[in-house]
């Protein structure tokens, strides 16, 4: 199944827009309870206004909240981002640390967020267990664990460390495009023949094809089409 994922999503990547570790860290915090697409609409203006950790730490709360309003839970997110900025300034000289044990000490940063930052800003392998990743690896029978940390460790034992970041991207891509939570596109899934949960969603190709999302749709359907 992993080899098939590699073939289906050779260019899988983090779908949040960023140019620095700080931008990525902030974007991941903002992505809670919303989509990467929505975050990417907000961050160009946000990143132009707030360029450093000190900028976030000293932000005017009302102004910052207006930038974040459309991402939902904007007051809590403003608190998180301001606290994050202050902690970076106080403990890390305003720089985003490149170690998991340091990142998870920051306000609002858990292992999932830390692994996204490590893998995509610092090229340090990490497994990102979001809702898509956890759902898919359980459907595939790779683990029965529900706890994200236990899932991370279980999958880490199956897959070489150097492949952790790309595996995360590919699994998440597949979860967003094909293997949906409520109605997976089983009949149009390139992984179908190896999937123990095949049949959870529609198995007819035409019906399932309508459920496939994303700009890779044509590529996915070409690989999954009956021959």
UniProtKB/TrEMBL annotation:
**Catalytic reactions of this protein:** 2'-deoxyribonucleotide-(2'-deoxyribose 5'-phosphate)-2'-deoxyribonucleotide-DNA = a 3'-end 2'-deoxyribonucleotide-(2,3-dehydro-2,3-deoxyribose 5'-phosphate)-DNA + a 5'-end 5'-phospho-2'-deoxyribonucleoside-DNA + H(+)
The reply to whether Nuclease figures as a keyword in the UniProt entry is yes
- State the free-text cofactor note: Binds 1 [4Fe-4S] cluster.
Gene3D superfamilies to which the protein is assigned, alphabetical? Helix-hairpin-Helix base-excision DNA repair enzymes (C-terminal) (1.10.1670.10), Hypothetical protein, domain 2 (1.10.340.30)
Entries under Pfam families matching the protein = EndIII_4Fe-2S, HHH, HhH-GPD
Q: CDD domains, alphabetically? A: ENDO3c
Q: Where is the HhH-GPD domain?
A: 30-177
Q: Which InterPro entries match?
A: DNA_glycosylase, Endonuclease-III-like_CS2, Endonuclease3_FeS-loop_motif, Endouclease-III_FeS-bd_BS, HhH-GPD_domain, HhH_base_excis_C, HhH_motif, Nth
* GO biological process terms held by the UniProt record: base-excision repair, AP site formation
Signal sequence interval, chain numbering: none
| Ligand binding ([4Fe-4S] cluster) | 179, 186, 189, 195
The answer to whether UniProt assigns keyword DNA damage to this entry is yes
Q: Which UniProt keywords apply?
A: 4Fe-4S, DNA damage, DNA repair, DNA-binding, Endonuclease, Glycosidase, Hydrolase, Iron, Iron-sulfur, Lyase, Metal-binding, Nuclease
Looking at its record, which EC class is this enzyme? lyase
Q: What is its EC number?
A: 4.2.99.18
Write one Gene Ontology MF term.
Answer: class I DNA-(apurinic or apyrimidinic site) endonuclease activity
Q: Which cofactor does it need?
A: [4Fe-4S] cluster
Question: What is this protein's function per UniProt?
Answer: DNA repair enzyme that has both DNA N-glycosylase activity and AP-lyase activity. The DNA N-glycosylase activity releases various damaged pyrimidines from DNA by cleaving the N-glycosidic bond, leaving an AP (apurinic/apyrimidinic) site. The AP-lyase activity cleaves the phosphodiester bond 3' to the AP site by a beta-elimination, leaving a 3'-terminal unsaturated sugar and a product with a terminal 5'-phosphate.
- Per the similarity annotation, which family is this? Belongs to the Nth/MutY family.
Q: Spell out the protein name for this chain.
A: Endonuclease III
* High-level lineage: Bacteria, Bacillati, Actinomycetota, Actinomycetes, Pseudonocardiales
């Amino acid at each position: 199944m992993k080899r098939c994922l590699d073939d289906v999503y050779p260019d899988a990547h983090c779908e949040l827009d960023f140019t620095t570790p700080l931008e990525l860290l902030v974007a991941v915090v903002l992505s809670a309870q919303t989509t990467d697409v929505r975050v990417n609409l907000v961050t160009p203006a946000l990143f132009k206004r707030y360029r450093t950790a000190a900028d976030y730490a000293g932000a005017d709360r009302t102004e910052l909240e207006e930038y974040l309003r459309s991402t939902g839970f904007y007051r809590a997110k403003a608190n998180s981002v301001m606290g994050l900025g202050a902690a970076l300034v106080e403990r890390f000289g305003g720089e985003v640390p490149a170690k998991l044990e340091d990142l998870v000490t920051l306000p609002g940063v858990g292992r999932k967020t830390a692994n996204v930052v490590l893998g995509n800003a610092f090229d340090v392998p990490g497994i990102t267990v979001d809702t898509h990743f956890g759902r898919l690896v359980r459907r595939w029978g790779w683990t029965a664990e529900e706890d994200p940390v236990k899932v991370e460790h279980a999958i880490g034992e199956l897959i070489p460390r150097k492949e952790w970041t790309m595996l995360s991207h590919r699994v998440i891509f597949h979860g967003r495009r094909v293997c949906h939570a409520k109605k997976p596109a089983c009949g149009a899934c390139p992984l179908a023949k190896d999937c123990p949960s095949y049949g959870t969603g529609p198995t007819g190709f035409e019906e399932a094809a309508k459920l496939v999302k994303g700009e890779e749709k044509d590529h996915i359907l070409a690989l999954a089409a009956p021959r």
